[in-house]
């Protein structure tokens, strides 16, 4: 017992000595400050916290502040807010990285040399979620599938709870942390420059800078006009990179792509629809899901002139015609309709006194026109009528003993020749009609079948389009021989003056071909800008030629399309 009492006395003496000693005699015991949080209150601005320094300590403090983290998350994700010590007090409003209804652990801290001391922790439940803040991002532009690293604050470590947008584009979040998000640009139709937006817990943060999503940019063309078949080059940026394409279009019409790079597209000018000829349109380009329109226009030229005024309502789509005195005279079932190249006007000239009909021969010799044959339903005709186009009067002439319609015909030396079509005697025989004697003469056979529009004259010679060839007629020998090959023999023929021959095919895209006498070849001269045909349906062109131009069109009795029932002029 004596020993225990002695030991207690020694402890008491040591305590008294310590209490009476000076502070510098025990430097290690009072080196670090002692911190204590007095308040942690949540409101609509964040969490207001205050702490006091109970013991200052002897060491030099480098930094004071608060550290806090969501209790449900890892402690190493703590956020730090530096605070200035004022009158031994620390005060701040914690606003970054908050989650509504989240329980946060909060500690005050002080950094002394290489050591950090903390207050005992407290907790507070946040009433708000913090708005994400974007400090920077990299890269600043790129194509689809570019990965962007975004730095900032008030993000989350859960990539499924945070959303990233560039304008209307939602990105795929690849990785996330409180101060960094990595997101990938998807492939899609949108492109351009937009700020980046980060959305978390209903709060949104937006970058000051914009990210540029690459998409096609159309800068210029090698030419801004051309005809079908021409080669042109489109210049720009970002043509490649899409999952398909690039493709170029003009008002819904596809160019044929010959080759492409990221900055250049070599293309062939397409054949236009009626509304696409001779009208400037912007070029559009599609690369993957992205499309862009050019700031310039391109024009597909037809080389035809502007269409004439609409004709009177024609009763049939077959309208035979001839030219006289600068006017085209058209026979339409039971009447004659004319078009004046001088006034540009249509007018009805006369009514036909005979039985109304379709598909007749309708040719001019001198100052008279002659109508021969035709059909109406199941009735075929062979009667002959003479028409005085200056007085608009008719005279019936002597008729043959056979009927014919839809034949190919031409005029040589004041006589009308015809073959093919449907003939009650023979569709493979060449026939001659002499207006002076009113007689029909049967000549030799033709070398194949022909029909309406497949005949023309040039420099006093006659030609037929038969089985892929242009056949020339030897009038003296009454025989035929090949003049030149031409595959589209199902064509409509016109002669300007007496020497310039043009053919307009009826079962393909209507290219106007010009005969080159020196080489006996046919070259593209123009592209018919009116209504065209498909493989199964044949247009029946009608028209006439003057000494310096031709006028051609297609007529329809029931079409409301503006490309029917008018003529398109062509001047070489």
UniProtKB/TrEMBL annotation:
Positions of the IPT/TIG domain: 132-212, 216-299
Superkingdom of origin organism: Bacteria
Signal peptide region: 1-21
Keywords: Kelch repeat, Repeat, Signal
Pfam families registered for this protein in UniProt: Kelch_1, TIG
Protein name: IPT/TIG domain-containing protein
Protein source organism: Pontibacter diazotrophicus
């Amino acid at each position: 017992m004596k020993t225990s009492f002695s030991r207690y006395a020694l402890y008491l003496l040591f305590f008294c000595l310590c209490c009476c000693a000076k502070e510098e005699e025990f430097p290690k015991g009072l080196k670090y400050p002692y911190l204590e949080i007095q308040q942690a209150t949540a409101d609509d601005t964040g969490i207001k916290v205050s702490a006091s320094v109970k013991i200052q300590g002897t060491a030099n403090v480098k930094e004071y502040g608060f550290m806090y983290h969501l209790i449900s998350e890892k402690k190493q994700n703590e956020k730090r807010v530096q605070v200035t010590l004022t009158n031994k007090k620390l005060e701040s409003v914690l606003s970054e990285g908050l989650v509504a209804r989240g329980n946060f652990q909060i500690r005050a801290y002080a950094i002394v040399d290489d050591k950090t001391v903390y207050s005992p922790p407290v907790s507070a439940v946040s009433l708000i979620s913090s708005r994400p803040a974007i400090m920077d991002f990299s890269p600043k532009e790129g194509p689809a599938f570019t990965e962007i690293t975004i730095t900032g604050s008030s993000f989350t470590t859960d990539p499924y709870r945070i959303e990233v947008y560039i304008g209307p584009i939602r990105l795929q979040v690849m990785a996330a942390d409180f101060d960094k998000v990595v997101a990938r640009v998807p492939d899609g139709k949108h492109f351009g420059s937009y700020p980046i937006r980060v959305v978390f817990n209903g709060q949104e943060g937006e970058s000051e800078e914009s990210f540029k999503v690459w998409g096609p940019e159309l800068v210029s063309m090698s030419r801004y006009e051309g005809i079908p078949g021409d080669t042109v080059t489109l210049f720009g940026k970002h043509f490649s990179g899409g999952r398909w394409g690039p493709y170029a279009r003009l008002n819904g019409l596809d160019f044929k792509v010959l080759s492409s790079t990221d900055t250049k597209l070599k293309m062939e000018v397409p054949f236009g629809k009626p509304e696409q000829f001779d009208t400037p349109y912007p070029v559009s380009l599609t690369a993957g899901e992205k499309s862009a329109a050019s700031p310039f226009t391109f024009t597909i030229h037809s080389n035809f002139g502007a269409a004439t005024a609409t004709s009177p309502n024609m009763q049939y789509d077959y309208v035979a015609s001839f030219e006289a005195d600068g006017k085209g005279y058209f026979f339409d079932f039971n009447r004659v309709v004319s078009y004046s190249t001088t006034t540009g006007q249509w007018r009805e000239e006369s009514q036909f006194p005979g039985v109304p009909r379709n598909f007749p021969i309708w040719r001019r010799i001198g100052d008279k026109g002659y109508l021969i044959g035709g059909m109406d339903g199941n009735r075929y005709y062979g009667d002959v009528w003479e028409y005085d186009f200056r007085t608009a009067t008719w005279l019936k002439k002597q008729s043959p003993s056979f009927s014919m319609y839809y034949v190919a015909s031409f005029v040589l030396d004041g006589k009308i020749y015809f073959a093919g079509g449907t003939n009650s005697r023979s569709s493979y025989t060449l026939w001659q009609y002499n207006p002076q004697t009113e007689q029909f003469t049967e000549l030799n056979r033709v070398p194949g079948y022909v029909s309406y529009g497949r005949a023309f004259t040039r420099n006093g010679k006659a030609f037929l389009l038969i089985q892929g060839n242009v056949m020339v007629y030897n009038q003296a020998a009454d025989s035929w021989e090949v003049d030149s090959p031409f595959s589209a023999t199902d064509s409509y023929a016109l002669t300007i003056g007496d020497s310039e021959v043009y053919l307009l095919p009826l079962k393909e895209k209507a290219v106007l071909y010009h005969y080159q006498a020196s080489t006996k070849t046919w070259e593209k001269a123009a592209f018919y800008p009116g209504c065209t045909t498909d493989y199964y349906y044949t247009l029946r062109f009608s028209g006439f030629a003057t000494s310096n131009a031709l006028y051609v069109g297609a007529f329809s009795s029931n079409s409301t399309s503006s490309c029917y029932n008018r003529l398109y002029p062509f001047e070489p």
